[in-house]
């Protein structure tokens, strides 16, 4: 069994569904910074943002089943987005946001491809990774990079994904202990 | 061209009831908002807030608190800064409102009201009344009755002689009092405020019977040959060896919560009964024929024994009833209180003013206190 930090989002979620607190904490570490910035860009009230993030994660923890068709990141970005719109709708700020949307619609310059839109939204949320301090950044990037490259390696060398993960995990452990800072700035 | 109504579209989007086209409009706008935002984050802030929110999440997770949306509002009892901290060191649920509600200052400078403590009296069938010491919190029933940390309270109960009938005692707590007792068979009982437990100096007959008025938590000693029964105004609970809590205050529903083991709750009025499994709670209300059963978080039901109040989806009057007993105060309502319910927890060792502040913030009410009478202004 390898260390939790090497697990993909999908694997962590599977553990969270079994009430693994460590896995839950790791997912939280991976996504909190980005979600925090995302929420703050739409709602400028820090207390509300904190409540929203708390709600989203507590709700995630209490799930006994979770079917994600796309990726965990789209799921969690959508969960936060729902909370943002929920807040906008209920509070006194509703009018301000409605006016803004009205103005936008009247100008008529919107895209209509939902798939592309989702990709763009994801990009806007994730580009903030570059504005995060190194340690926070690497927690997120590492999880992305690893999954993609493992799949490629597995395909190319005709080996199972698990084997690749295990081997890389062992290698990473050795590397990290010797070359910590060097290794991470490589990304 | 059909005019688009932004407000309606937003509403439909939120409900998930808009068309694919409308969805793309809203999300394009959302995307633009993101692009145009001037917000920049301070990494130190992120780190700090990440920690704060994680603490709150951990509290929520460990107490399995479920939020229930009532009339599209969730209100929690606030933890006013760090001042309301659990005895167990877990921080409380956060406040929803971003403004702090003003503390109501009475025109007279009144001394703050202290929380309850170890107060009780022991009344006995032979006529004696003993005020129990506040320095101890537990008494043990054996050949004598003594405090857990040593000194005897009552001597010569003569439990060795079976020809003499056992003496009946009543452990009684006032408002603001709580006390613990270990009965002659080893059963442990935590008695809450404004309650009384009647018990014999020894359990002689084929059943072990005690009587309860108010609230107590029991950890019953195993004895297959001698079933343990707790009688209260509306029910009798029969147990073998278990951990359970009974709340049987006058003019409130009788609630029995089972943590471990098995109990049978027998309703005396119509002789109906239910068998409780761990995690289950029975409620007997005067106006309801059947005994109601529910699965609940048992930690909440016994929170009082662990040093804090836990409000699990309770109305304000229900919450204030508990506060009344622990602080010996009386609440009256300016207007009929709403049916809104609240979730939260507050330490039982805080002074009244701290508790009232928290409630004011969470329930959007104001309290005006004169001595021990408090008016609730909503």
Quote the distance from N terminus to C terminus of chain B. Answer: 49 Å
Mean pLDDT of chain A: 78
Which percent range describes the beta-strand content of chain B? 25-35%
- The string of secondary-structure elements of chain B, in order, is HHHEEEEEEEEEEEEEEEEEEHEHEEHEE
Q: What's the helical proportion of residues of chain A?
A: over 70%
Mean of residue pLDDT values of chain B: 78
How many domain units of chain B? 3
Supply database-style keywords.
heterodimer; A: 187 residues; mainly alpha; Rna Polymerase Sigma Factor, Chain: A; B: 378 residues; alpha+beta; Phage tail protein beta-alpha-beta fold; Jelly Rolls; 3 domains; 18-stranded mixed sheet; three-stranded mixed sheet; 6 helices; 20% helix; 31% strand; elongated
What does this structure look like?
The complex is a heterodimer of chains A (187) and B (378). Chain A contains eight helices and no strands. Chain A has 187 residues and is mostly helical. Chain A has two domains: 1-128, Rna Polymerase Sigma Factor, Chain: A; 133-187. The longest helix of chain A has 25 residues, at 161-185. Chain A is globular and about 55 Å long. Chain B has 378 residues and is of the alpha+beta class. Chain B folds into three domains: 6-36, no CATH class; 40-110 and 307-378, Phage tail protein beta-alpha-beta fold (3-Layer(bab) Sandwich), CATH 3.55.50.30; 121-301, Jelly Rolls (Sandwich). Chain B has six helices and 23 strands. In chain B, strand 22 (366-370) and strand 23 form a beta hairpin. Chain B is elongated. The chains are: A mainly alpha (187), B alpha+beta (378). Chains A and B meet through helix 2, helix 3, helix 4, helix 5 and helix 6 of A and helix 1, helix 2 and helix 3 of B.
């Amino acid at each position: 069994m390898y260390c939790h930090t090497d697990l993909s989002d999908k694997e962590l979620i599977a553990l969270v569904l079994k009430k693994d607190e460590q896995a839950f904490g790791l997912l939280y570490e991976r996504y909190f910074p980005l979600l925090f910035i995302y929420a703050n860009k739409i709602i400028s009230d820090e207390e509300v943002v904190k409540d929203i993030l708390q709600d989203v994660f507590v709700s995630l923890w209490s799930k006994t089943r979770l079917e994600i068709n796309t990726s965990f990141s789209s799921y969690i970005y959508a969960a936060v987005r729902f909370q943002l719109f929920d807040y906008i709708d209920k509070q006194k700020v509703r009018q301000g946001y409605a006016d803004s949307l009205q103005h936008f619609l009247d100008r008529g310059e919107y895209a209509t491809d939902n798939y592309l839109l989702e990709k763009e939204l994801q990009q806007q949320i994730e580009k903030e990774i570059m504005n995060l301090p190194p340690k926070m950044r690497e927690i997120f990037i590492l999880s992305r990079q690893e999954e993609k490259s493992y799949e490629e390696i597995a395909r190319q060398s005709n080996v199972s994904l698990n084997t690749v993960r295990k081997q890389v995990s062992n290698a990473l452990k050795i590397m990290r202990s010797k070359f910590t800072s060097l290794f991470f700035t490589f990304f | 061209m059909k005019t688009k109504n932004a407000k309606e579209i937003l509403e439909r989007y939120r409900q998930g009831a808009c068309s694919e086209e409308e969805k793309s409009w809203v999300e394009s706008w959302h995307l633009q908002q993101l692009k145009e935002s001037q917000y920049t984050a301070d990494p130190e802030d992120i780190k700090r807030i990440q920690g704060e929110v994680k603490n709150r999440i951990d509290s929520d997770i460990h107490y399995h608190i479920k939020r229930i949306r009532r009339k599209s509002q969730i209100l929690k009892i606030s933890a006013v800064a760090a001042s309301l901290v659990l005895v167990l060191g877990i921080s409380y649920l956060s406040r929803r409102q971003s403004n702090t509600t003003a503390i109501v200052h009475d025109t007279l400078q009144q001394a703050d009201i202290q929380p309850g403590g170890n107060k009780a009296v022991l009344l006995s069938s032979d006529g004696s009344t003993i005020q129990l010491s506040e320095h101890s919190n537990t008494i043990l029933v054996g050949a004598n009755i003594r405090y857990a940390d040593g000194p005897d309270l009552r001597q010569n109960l003569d439990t060795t002689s079976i020809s003499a009938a056992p003496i009946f005692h009543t452990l009684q707590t006032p408002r603001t009092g709580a006390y613990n007792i270990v009965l002659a068979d080893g059963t442990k009982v935590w008695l809450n405020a404004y309650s009384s437990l009647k018990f014999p100096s020894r359990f002689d007959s084929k059943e072990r019977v005690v009587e309860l008025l108010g609230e107590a938590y029991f950890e019953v000693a195993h004895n297959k040959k001698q079933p343990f029964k707790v009688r209260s105004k509306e029910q009798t609970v029969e147990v073998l060896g278990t951990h359970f809590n009974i709340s049987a205050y006058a003019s409130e529903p009788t609630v029995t919560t089972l943590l471990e083991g098995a109990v049978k709750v027998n309703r005396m009025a119509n002789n109906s009964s239910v068998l409780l499994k761990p995690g289950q709670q029975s409620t007997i209300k005067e106006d309801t024929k059947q005994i109601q059963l529910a699965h609940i978080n048992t930690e909440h039901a016994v929170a009082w024994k662990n040093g804090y109040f836990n409000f699990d989806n309770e109305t304000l009057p229900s919450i204030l009833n508990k506060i009344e007993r622990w602080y010996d105060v009386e609440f009256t309502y300016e207007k009929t209180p709403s049916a809104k319910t609240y979730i939260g927890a507050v330490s039982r060792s805080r002074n009244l003013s701290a508790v009232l502040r928290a409630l004011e913030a969470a329930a959007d009410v104001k309290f005006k206190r004169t001595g021990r009478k408090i008016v609730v202004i909503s």
